[in-house]
Amino acid sequence: MKPKLALARVNYSQLYTVYDGGKTYTQRDILVPYQLLNLAGYIREQGAEVAIFDGEVELLTEEALAKRIVAWRPDFVGLTATTPDIEMTIKVCRLVKEGNPAIVTILGGVHATVLPEEVAGHACVDFVVAGDGEKPLAQIMAECRTQRLPVRDDVRQKILYGKRPELTSLPMPAHDLLDYENYQFSDPTRGRMKTASVMSSRGCPFFCSFCAHTPDVRYRTPEAFVAEIEYLYRVKGVRYFFVYDDVFVVKRSRALAILEQLRRLNLADAHFQCQARANLLDEELLAALRATNCVRVSIGIESGSEEMLARCNKGVTKPHCRSACSMIRKAGLEPRASFIIGFPYETRATAEATIAFAQELDLLHANFTVMTPYPGTKVYDMACRREGLRFVKPEYARQWSVFRRWGEPIVETDELTSGELEALRERAVMEFYTQDKVFRYYESLFRGGNRSRYFFRPMNFAWKKKFGCDIPFWSQLDETNLIQTT
Ligand code: B12
Question: How many A from CA of 82 to the centre of ligand 1?
């Protein structure tokens, strides 16, 4: 009989409390669990039966998720977690073990990669995988079958370190396991469409102070990546693609080759969004992106203070950001920018510079967050050492559920309290989304038929803050899909 592996992620969006005070929308954008799809594709090739349990889709409680997993009678359960959802994930793990102690539990993902010993310290966790999970997961499953569950007592023995596999040898992620009806993104003008996450590479060669990442970049072949997109388009009916490579354009000639292959496929009504860096864009690259129907490019602008930019080690300057935003717009694409308030040594003046810079740039969408120093990053170490940044309460440094990025701020700088950082973030949203050019754009989207309250909530948040009232067309937006979770 084939071994059975259940792969799962928890309902993570219940952690967020942005804009609407924790309300959750049924028709929100849900992105596929791409890490689980990668693992499933590989493990299935090794002869196992695999199912994916996505707690996010139905907003399952930990109890409900564990119950479903146990009812499927798996031999192995693999759970993925980032930092803010690790505690919920451990709870699911514990409930699965209580439901059936014979199930072997394995935890992986970015948090387990950064802090494997901590995760392995939980009695309900049999194995921890740090790093890329395909091969270690296969190894655990093979060993357990031959040795009848060699569960290890020493915490360190529970940890397997994923050697970075050549991506060229991995099969296509197991997209067939998902019902893509559940994964939709609401495009502001084109409506709702089935959406996939795809990656042509793993890793990032840069060392930004606020990011935990794998520094060695590994690539799939352009052909395998393009074939995945074609499959998703033709077989699964996907029309929106988030290209989630850390920096898709990092190898310019390769990006151009991929874009050319995609253009030749002529997937007329497919739309793409990718992540780039302000200093790695040029007109030819942007024209090639446009020619493949790329509609949005996300860039991390981070700060309007040259001092903060230099300190965060991104290698990007304000002139890079100005030129990137205007080049993206000129190419007919939409720049999506994100900003952080609360860098180490941030002052009121540097945060004000960020608020002003966001408005100066050629932008209609901007995302502002207060710094969350994730473990494994330089800013986390700085916050622990109180170097220009510190946790509001020392115990926050290991209280993972507060690391939400879109929740209550957990840090303060030498000059700014967490409340002041949050007030500055709110003001950034308020000033940005009440600009005339931004309002006119949003109003035109409404006139064009966009009725999604979910989409307009940042702007409404801004209006409430600045003018004490809703945007004029708020009552005409669709609220039927709103559910209250708090
Ligand atoms: C796409 C993405 C999202 C999407 C979808 C997330 C999802 N759950 O699928 C959205 C936009 C929803 C999102 C949200 C958030 N994200 Co995000 N996201 C990413 C991104 C860009 C790609 C993730 C991905 O699919 N990678 C591809 C797969 C193949 O790689 P992988 O995830 O590392 O998985 C491999 C191994 O980790 C391991 N593995 C993973 N899980 C498991 C499980 C088992 C059992 C095993 C054995 C192995 C294993 O094997 C996998 C294959 O080799 C990453 C950056 C990155 N490049 O990874 C950030 C990243 C994961 N996100 C991050 C963060 C902070 C968040 C948020 C917490 C932000 C917030 N709102 O507060 C939320 C958390 C949501 C959540 N719990 O999933 C951080 C995580 C930092 C941390 N310590 O937690 C990252 C690393 C970005 C960064 N560098 O800061 N995110």
Answer: 6
Contact (Cβ atoms closer than 8 angstroms) between residue 111 and residue 375: yes
Ligand 1 pocket, 213 CB below 6 A? yes
Cα–Cα distance, 160 to 137 (Å, whole number): 9
pLDDT tens digits along 10-53: 988 776 655 565 566 666 788 999 999 999 999 999 999 999 99
Query: Phi and psi dihedrals of 161, rounded to 5?
Result: -100, 120
For the chain, what are the domain ranges? 4-168, 179-433
Q: Which amino acid is at 44?
A: R
Two tokens, residue 455: 């989409």
* DSSP per position, 284-304: HHHHHHHHTTEEEEEEEEE-S
Q: Whose CA is nearest to atom 45 of ligand 1?
A: 78
Atom 50 (ligand 1) nearest CA: 133
Q: Which region, left, alpha or beta, applies to residue 315 given φ > 0 means left and ψ of -120 to 50 means alpha?
A: left
Per-residue buried b or exposed e for 114-153, using 16+ beta carbons within 10 Å of the residue's own CB = bbbebbbebebbbbbbbbbbbbbbbebbeebeeeeeeeee
Q: Is the dihedral of CA 77, 78, 83, 85 positive or negative?
A: negative
pLDDT tens per residue, range 93-102: 999 999 999 9
pTM of the complete model beyond 0.90: yes
| Bridge-based pairing state of the strands 76-80 and 159-161 | unpaired
Structure tokens of 26? 């049924």
Residue type, 278: A
Running DSSP on this structure, what letter comes out for residue 452?
B
Q: How far apart are CA 313 and CA 2, in angstroms?
A: 49
Q: Separation of 246 CA from ligand 1 center, angstroms?
A: 11
**DSSP 8-state secondary structure symbol assigned to residue 203:** -
4-168 in CATH: which number?
3.40.50.280
User: What CATH number does the domain located at 179-433 have?
Assistant: 3.80.30.20
- Which of 80, 184, 199, 374 to mutate to test ligand 1, by most ligand atoms within 8 A of the CB atom? 80
**What helix, strand, coil percent values describe the chain, rounded to 5?**
45, 20, 40
